[in-house]
Write a structure and sequence with these properties.
This protein is 22% helix and 25% strand. The protein has 203 residues and is an alpha/beta fold. It starts with a strand and ends in a 9-residue tail after the last helix. The protein has five helices and 14 strands. Strands 1-2-3-4-5-6 form a six-stranded mixed sheet, with no helix packed on it. A six-stranded mixed sheet has the order 7-8-9-10-13-14. Strands 11-12 form a two-stranded antiparallel ribbon. It folds into two domains: 79 residues, Metallo-beta-lactamase, Chain A (4-Layer Sandwich); 106 residues, Metallo-beta-lactamase, Chain A (4-Layer Sandwich). The longest helix is centred in the last third of the chain and has 13 residues. This is Beta-lactamase. InterPro entries: MBL_Glyoxalase_II, Metallo-B-lactamas, RibonucZ/Hydroxyglut_hydro. Keywords: Hydrolase, Metal-binding, Zinc. It comes from Natrialba taiwanensis DSM 12281.
Length: 203
Amino acid sequence: MEVHHVTEGAETFTCNAFLVVGDRTTLVDAGAWDGVVDEIRTYTDDVDAVVMTHQHGDHVSELEAVCDAFDPEVYAYDHHPERDHSIDDGDTVQIGDDEFSVVYTPGHADDHVSFVSETALFSGDVVVHDDGAFDYGSFGRTDMVGQSREQLIESIDRLLDRLPDGVEYMYAGHGGVFQGDVRDVVETALDRAEKREPKYPDE
């Protein structure tokens, strides 16, 4: 699977946006960096689809610009003016050359979904490998309005149930790309979330 982190060079706050080149060239999240369209064009002239993990501003702000530039089909759980297809738990979407299962993973956001194949996980913000709180096995914050630690714990548990043993790549909404035992990273995140302690000292 050919994956490019197209917001890696951003100097403004944004999520990780991943361009997956293949039979169905797909952007996972649009990000909030105004240079994302130019960066995508360094790899391809066509984007067939955009799949959204959720619609927090750092993930969706550049969606309109991406749609104006490439006219992709847009998949999202909740309504968005650019959405063409609604997706829900148990659905299947093609990302690049591979089929991914949609797993509904709320808690950090009510509309949050993750995408799982036999070898890769696009986890959005529900689970990340490393961030400012933890270096291995972290999870999305749940201290803001509309968020729920209990829902997040249930979501990570659901994700583990649906995660094939062979998954070795994790592309999260923040932090670094991880290659290795993805199940262990997710289990570590679940253990930390279940302690129900503040993720950040100022929570």
